[in-house]
Amino acid sequence: MARSQQPTRHHSPGKGRRPAAPALTFLGAAGTVTGSKFLVEGGGGRLMVDCGLYQGERRWRALNWEAPPVDPATVDAVALTHAHLDHCGYLPALVRGGFAGPAHTTSGTAALAGVILRDSAHLQEEEAEGARRGGWSKHDPPLPLYTVADAERAVAALRPVGETGSVEAAGATVTFVRAGHILGSSSVLVEKDGASVLFSGDLGRNDHPVLFPRARPPAAHTVVVESTYGDRAHPEVDPEHHVMADAIRRTIRRGGSVVIPAFAVDRTEIVLLALADLVESGAVPDVPVWVDSPMALAALEIYRDPQHAGEVRPEALDRLRRLSGLRTAHTAEESMRLNNPGSPCVIVSASGMASGGRVVHHLRYLLPQARNTVLLTGYQAIGTRGRDLQEGAREVKIAGRYVPVRAEVVTLDDFSVHADADELLAWLGEMPRPPEAVHVVHGEPGAARALADGIRDRFDCPVSVPRYGERVLLD
Ligand SMILES: [Zn+2]
Q1: CATH 3.40.50.300 at 242-411, yes or no
Q2: Fold (topology level) of 23-232+417-473
Q3: Neighbouring residues of 261: CB distance < 8 A, sequence distance ≥ 6
Q4: What's the CA-to-centroid distance between 202 and ligand 1, angstroms?
């Protein structure tokens, strides 16, 4: 395992100072996967591309709580690539810190970010309250990073451009191009003062079962590309989901329950369609399937909304609308009852890396019993419970206590919504002309270096893996 880069003290991009030439500063997703934040500055203004929360390892999460390296009041506008928390979840904190500009994004991202930011604020408030009652906080009194009121102000700042499109912001032209990762996800092209920089955002796979594939990337001098799976080739997708079907059958034979930590947005839709296939084909018995995540249910409604039909494959939209037999737990009491269902069931619950949300209490009750199974469905960041489980931890810490892991843990490779190394290189290769510089971000250090090597082999241009706080000129 490559040693992670330490989050070093940032060289401030200058709390009030604005460089004359366009410059780009890496304020997140540099040295790690989460916390995406990039500052593009130039004569005409300051634009922050993505405004994500750090998740996972404590040393990175600590940065969520530090004074931001740029005074939020001096940021003129934000552009969001997509609604995952590690790309938009810091926006309420930026607003709380004095940001008063617009947050431009696509209509799909605006719809999903509304759900995600409010949920995140609730979790922040609940955690602070839980820490106060449990007495395990270092802060006295424990405070949330931001409140529901802050999230409402952030949601009010969202300015959708449509499914894709351009907008003038902070002295730049900002263009959103479909990225095929989750609904509304986009790459963002920023053009200002003769410079152009294309942020890949998170890139999806071309065979996403629900969404139309990503668009061809536009031309740009500079590219900032993600590398979540920069050192990996995804196995062929198994349309019959044999690993999942086998695991569910084994569990039901043991009289156990299956808990699937699923990212509330997109992964839940894909997992539900796969479960529906397996039940329809008889590959697994028709046991109750519970969706225990108010956020996942809200996201499902957005995927089914005719307003976003232009992004969803028609056959998937039809099936999502026809999904039947879903049981939904609305109250906390209903959710708790699922831990003692009396007979086997499948629980799909967020968050996907088991770092928060209702899935945490399901794990607390279900992990100690060998008859149960946890199915992990996607990327698990270092420092999350999902990653610990994936790596065979014998116990995990939940609400201040160690919980033994006796349940079976299975990782499913079928549900990734991130491009792998070849797909990332193919995306770069589709640019109308090769970029003049590429910066590799949003990966663990080994994955970022591997992708950087791959890009150097294939394209004749300088490639860097920037450090946290690093600044480059864009001219
Ligand atoms: Zn994402």
Answers
A1: no
A2: Metallo-beta-lactamase; Chain A (3.60.15)
A3: 349, 350, 351, 352, 353, 354, 359, 363, 374, 376, 377, 386
A4: 5
Please tell me the distance between residue 86's alpha carbon and the centre of ligand 1 in angstroms. 7
Ordered DSSP codes for 310-332: GGB-HHHHHHHHH--SEEE--SH
Distance 182 CA to ligand 1 centre (A): 7
- Rounded Cα gap, residues 411 and 374, in angstroms: 8
Residues lower than pLDDT 70 in the chain: 1-20, 136-140
Neighbouring C-beta atoms of residue 33, cutoff 10 Å: 27
Listed in sequence order, the residues at least 6 apart from 242 whose beta carbon sits closer than 8 Å to its beta carbon are none
What would the pLDDT profile of 5-44 be if each residue is shown by its tens digit?
445 444 445 454 555 689 999 999 998 999 999 999 987 8
Ligand 1 centroid–CA 33 distance in Å is 10
Ligand 1 midpoint to CA 84 (Å): 5
Domain boundaries, the chain: 23-232+417-473, 242-411
Query: Ligand 1 centre from 181 Cα, in Å?
Result: 7
Question: How many angstroms separate the alpha carbon of residue 34 from the centre of ligand 1?
Answer: 9
